[in-house]
Automatic annotation (TrEMBL):
It comes from Trichoderma simmonsii. Residues 243-410 form the Peptidase M4 C-terminal domain. One of its GO terms (molecular function) is metalloendopeptidase activity. Residues 67-100 form the Protealysin N-terminal propeptide domain. This is Metalloprotease.
Amino acid sequence: MSYRCYIVPPHLLKAIGESSHNPDTVREAARAALQSHHAFTAKRKSHIEAVIQSRHSSRAPPPTRPFVPAHVLRHISESEHVDEEARARAARDLEHTLHLESRAKHREGETQLATEAAKLGKDAPQRSIYDAEHTSSQRQLPGKLVRAEGDKAAKDKTVNQAYDNVGTVLEFYKDKFKWNSIDNKNMDVISSVHFGQQYENAFWDSEERQMVFGDGGEFLSNFTGCIDVIGHELTHAVTEHTSALDYQGQPGALNEHISDVFGIMIKQKVQDETSQNADWLIGEDCILPGVKGVALRSMKAPGTAYDDPRFGKDPQVDNMKDYVTMYEDNGGVHIYSGIPNKAFYLVAKAFGGYSWEKAGQIWWKTMRSGKVPESSTFLQFADATVDVAKKEFGEDVAKTVRKAWDDVGVRRSI
């Protein structure tokens, strides 16, 4: 089973579809796209069960998760605060986003290919950047090769940003966590830029094993220039090779959370920010001027990233008291990831210094500890981080980690 998680989540698309600030035609298109998504979700559930059964042996590819969530596009497509052309583009991109989420295909022979690649004994991953030339068809990807590993800079700024920032993410994993590329076996990383027409999203395609970047439009852009976006998306692939969390409910929210954690650490590394000085904003550099918001998510204060009539208000929550069972967005994976996100922020802030020095090491070693099942709940994950913290850094550090989880309501019932 393969599907995509866009950096713009479904709840934002839903908000676009329900906003009175958007015209009827845009809202109808958004609702229609959302209906198709719901129909596929039921089919996907039974398929996921089969994938989980074989994941340990076959390591089926993880869901593809684009950066711009669906609910953002839906809200734009129905907003009366934007022109008809912008709404039409948003509706088009929404339809494409939901189509990608519903697409699935068999990957026969993948395990064999992975085994053969591992036998090559590569010393380093190779980066390749392709120009999609604005195609909206995955069948035409990756496109035209523009820059390969070791080539001099291209004339296209977007190509160079993708090349450099993918390299920065890979170097961060290698330097801070002794992890080589996505799979720890120096897997090559392919990226396609200029996908679609003013496509306001970016994602890791788990079927084709590559990054895909749109150029953006009226509200969201600069995806190749957002290091946290690239860190977030590539971490979804890394998660497959550490603790392969399911993509539904609490384990799905943890999956999103892990990508945010490593995306934010990479951003802080590039900007040389300590935990105390960082803004803890995800997708900050993707929001264009004029949008009433500062980012797509805030790890420091979930639910405060944006509040725009065309987008709706940031629906993330930061405490288990606000957790309710839901069916949209795969059980709210983009909404409830705010709870563990806040916990990580509190841990890193309490330790001081750089986030990857202690907090990041605990999270990383937790993901590799074997203590995180595919169906992990927040509490199971919290317990695992406390155990790892105690083993690696001692009782006092473990107490700090436990307090952070308690503060966001992830605690054992008395």
